Amino acid sequence: MPQPQLLVIGGGLGGIAAALRSRALGYQVTLLERNPTLGGRGSGLYHNGWRYDSGPTVITAPHLLEELFTLFGQQLQQQLTLQPLQEYYRFHFPDGSHFAYGGQAEQIEAAVRAFAPADGDGYRALLEQARQLFTIGFEQLAERPFHHPATLLRHTPELLRLGAWRSVHRSVARHLRDPRLRQVFSTPPLLVGGNPFDTTAIYLLIHYLEQRWGVHYPLGGVAALMTALHQLLRDAGVVVETNCEVIEIQSDHRRRVTGVRLATGEELPANQIIADLDPLHLYQKLIGVQRISPLARLRHRYLHHSMGLFLLHFATRQRYPAVGHHSILFGQQFRQPLEEIFYRGTIPQEFAIYLHHPSATDPSAAPPDRDTFYALVPVPNLAAPIDWEQAAPQLRQRLLDRLAATLLPGVEQQLLDEVMITPHHFAKQLRSHLGCGFSIAPRFQQSAWFRFHNRSPHLDGLYLVGAGTHPGAGVPGVLSSAKVVERLLQESQRSGK
Ligand SMILES: Cc1cc2nc3c(=O)[nH]c(=O)nc-3n(C[C@H](O)[C@H](O)[C@H](O)COP(=O)(O)OP(=O)(O)OC[C@H]3O[C@@H](n4cnc5c(N)ncnc54)[C@H](O)[C@@H]3O)c2cc1C
After folding, report:
1. Angle at 346 between CA 342 and CA 349, to 5 degrees
2. Quick one: pLDDT at residue 1?
3. Interior/surface letters 81-109, b for 16+ CB within 10 angstroms, e for the rest
4. How do residues 122-131 score in pLDDT, each as one tens digit?
5. Is 161 exposed, middle or buried (CB count within 10 Å of its CB: 0-12, 13-18, 19+)?
6. What whole-number distance in Å separates Cα of residue 201 and Cα of residue 190?
7. Cβ within 8 Å of residue 282, ≥6 positions away
8. Ligand 1 mean position to 293 CA, how many Å?
9. How far, in Å, is the centroid of ligand 1 from the Cα of 41?
10. Residue 167 Cα, ligand 1 centroid: separation in angstroms?
11. Which residue's alpha carbon is at the smallest distance from atom 3 of ligand 1?
12. Cα(40) to centroid of ligand 1, in Å?
């Protein structure tokens, strides 16, 4: 009979970090992942010999990754190069202008002053607000358990003073006048699944995070990051089982977890379980609504979800050396397309495109005379009745037409390979509720204490990490959620449970 142990379900970045941190606390840890490889949203994608990044391309707060290696006496730098980028993003506007920034506060302020001189002081004030939100939202709260209402009450006055109840866009608009810069600095919520018009201003901290520790890209792509982390798991003695889907979390009459049942019918005992899953998938499918309180069931029904994502990964015969690593192409309108995506459930005629061009930084991303890219557009999640069989090819064509007319002339004739990803991929492959790109949306009413707690209120011995939990989506968020669970496990060890 296998010994009772700590099981981690889901090998996304949050699950991997939680497995490593609990292993360092002395637990026997097994990580169960339904797909053949680890990484979830953050994995390498191989197609016809090409390598693409499935998800995160902007690595901020790299120390959170470094810490995982240090726990086992290793150094991240010896396994992987996290390349700092000089230019973080390049934003292109329909009037033909563009704005790029990188570096630290003074350089970004200088770029703002050069682009819109009247907004220099406003940018400084915006950055100061972002810094203060960072101090409370990242330094003080991101790594702390947030399941006691007292924690919320203690920090509410400070959060209100910093305008956390305002949206990101509203806060930006209070400081900046240039409509193009308002779009630029309102973009971060989209990186964690939120509409900038209703995402809490707490997420302004992302901008501070970027310039505090820089923006990095792993040479060898996200695949190389995953290879390094997988090796670290092995070195640390974590048992990793891939192609292993959990279909039920089992508990006893005292509502304490006892183990899991796999899709194969096999049962594995456990006295602690950490779930790195979409919390709604966890509660609705793996635990079952009958084990959830009626109040929680009601709340789950009224949650606001992040958007879906449409991605086109592609390789080109020619290189596009003038295109930066991260480009964002804005359309004529900013707010209206977001309303269509988030509120009306329709694919807008015009949309902002995020273009990732790893070969701009990483020679291993493509052969010397070729290029690889992904183009990403936010779209409605699967709550909208969109027939993706029909919509995907149309969207692909519009995307390529727009890229051909702007940054990538003649791109369609240059294509050597392509892969389309729709919200169905997120639902089927990653078990994401409604195929959302980032779990629940980062609104004020769904952040901190209001977000899914890292210790389940429904079953003892069940912990949660990942994008849907406190502190939230994005690489720094999910890595921090593992630190929260580490603290909770330490508490549980101290109390002998
Ligand atoms: C296209 C895209 C671009 C992004 N870009 C950035 C970026 O540039 N910077 C940034 O910081 N963040 C970015 N993000 C966000 C970031 O990648 C995610 O928030 C983060 O990787 C999510 O990690 P997670 O721990 O929540 O797990 P996930 O990645 O969601 O992984 C969960 C894992 O659980 C597995 N699983 C699910 N159900 C089961 C089951 N029943 N049994 C076993 N296994 C199961 C899934 O297969 C999956 O591997 C991006 C996300 C996307 C989608």
Report:
1. 110
2. 40
3. ebbbbebbbbbbbeeeebbbbbbebeebb
4. 999 999 999 9
5. exposed
6. 13
7. 249, 275, 464
8. 27
9. 3
10. 25
11. 55
12. 5
Tokens standing for 381? 């999640």
Q: Is 310 in contact with 377 (CB distance < 8 Å)?
A: yes
Tokens of 236: 């640390």
Residues with CB under 6 Å of ligand 1 are: 9-15, 32-35, 40-42, 55-58, 191, 245-246, 276-277, 309, 311, 376, 430-431, 437-438, 466-467, 473-475, 478
Instruction: Tell me the CA–centroid distance for residue 121 and ligand 1, in Å.
Output: 37
Q: Whose C-alpha lies nearest to ligand 1, atom 15?
A: 474
Residues of the chain with pLDDT under 70: 1-4, 497
CB contact burial 312-327 (16+ within 10 A = b; e otherwise): bbbbbeebbeebbbbb
Architecture per CATH, 6-80+219-303+443-494: 3-Layer(bba) Sandwich (3.50)
Residue 463: closest CA among 57, 27, 123, 75 = 27
Contact partners, residue 395, CB within 8 Å, separation at least 6: 310, 347, 377, 379
Strand ranges (E), 208-252: 216-218, 239-241, 246-251
Which of 41, 45, 203 gets mutated to test ligand 1 (max ligand atoms within 8 A of its CB)? 41
User: Which atom of ligand 1 has the smallest separation from the CA of 421?
Assistant: 1
Distance from residue 204's CA to the centre of ligand 1 (Å): 22
Residue 190 DSSP label? G
Which pLDDT score is estimated for 4? 52
Segments making up each domain of the chain, as ranges: 6-80+219-303+443-494, 108-214, 307-430
Tell me what pLDDT residue 2 has: 45
Which atom of ligand 1 is nearest to 278's Cα?
30
Among the listed residues 425, 458, 181, the one whose alpha carbon sits nearest the alpha carbon of residue 295: 458
Beta bridge partners of residue 52, listed in sequence order: 45
Could you tell me the distance, in angstroms and rounded to a whole number, from the CA of residue 98 to the centre of ligand 1?
31
Cα separation, 79 vs 43, whole angstroms: 17
* DSSP conformation class of 446: G
CATH class of the domain at 307-430: alpha beta
**Helix, strand, coil tally for the chain in percent (to 5):** 45, 20, 35
